[in-house]
Design a protein that fits this description.
Radius of gyration: 44 Å
Oligomer: single chain
Distance between the termini: 86 Å
Shape: rod-shaped
Largest sheet: none
Number of helices: 1
Strand content: under 5%
Length: 151
């Protein structure tokens, strides 16, 4: 059974977009950093004595912002993963609920069948006991009546 609120997410962020992997010196990344071209373009020129990161680029405000964005993207990816796991757990729970409902319906049907069977057994026993009582009455009463009529 499918429910509208259990539809798959339309967009799942599985990988960081290509622009997230650009270094701060790359003009495509939109950091506004000139990448060492001091006279060309805009932004802060590259200084060879500035502390450098693993890309060989100086630590800059744009790089710090990119790190924060990467952290947020990682957190979002974890949240999406947790939501997907929750969806799987909800589906499992829904399946188990359906199985329990089916089992309960089967139990009710079986209980009704057992109730009818036991009622018939009880009724047959009552009929047999009533027949034995009637037979005993006939066996006892008939000879007495026959003896009285002879006398």
């Amino acid at each position: 059974m499918e429910y509208p609120w259990r539809e798959k997410p339309v967009l799942v962020l599985r990988e960081k977009p290509k622009s997230y992997n650009n270094t701060p010196g790359n003009l495509e990344s939109g950091y506004g950093y000139s990448g060492g071209n001091a006279g060309k373009g805009f932004g802060t020129p590259r200084h060879d004595d500035a502390p450098q990161d693993s890309y060989g680029e100086p630590h800059s405000k744009g790089h710090k912002v990119q790190q924060e964005v990467d952290k947020v993207v990682d957190i979002m990816n974890e949240n999406i993963q947790m939501v997907m796991e929750r969806d799987v757990n909800l589906k499992d729970l829904d399946d188990r609920t359906g199985q329990l409902n089916d089992g309960a319906a089967q139990f009710r049907r079986n209980a009704a069948d057992v109730r009818k069977t036991m009622w018939w057994r009880n009724m047959r026993l009552r009929i047999i006991v009533a027949g034995v009582v009637v037979l005993l009455v006939i066996v006892i009463v008939v000879p007495i009546v026959v003896n009285k009529n002879r006398n």
